[in-house]
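Example record used in the benchmark description.
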Amino acid sequence: MPYGSSDQFLLSKMALTKSGFFQHLLAYCGLSALACLAFEKKSIWLHFMAFVLLGSFLELVQFYLPYRTFNIFDIAANLVGVALGMIFALMVSRKDAKALRAEDRGRMTEGG
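Model output (structure tokens):
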């Protein structure tokens, strides 16, 4: 989607909605949350970097394709989505860990 020289770096409402900003954000949020929950927490930074590179690479490829358009806001949306997805997954896993610890303490007092 071509931008005029004055509108090139403005983050306007139209730029967000027409570029698919929210679709990118939701897709990468879900993708990164599922990956974070599925794999070990030790490699969370590896997952973060992998999704950031994937999102950036896929968007940069569109710069060279005649039937696709490159948009810097899509890369930003991918980054924000990955970060939000990982934060969500970490919050869920922490909540689950607390519940498991409480359950274990209950078993120890009942059985001990």
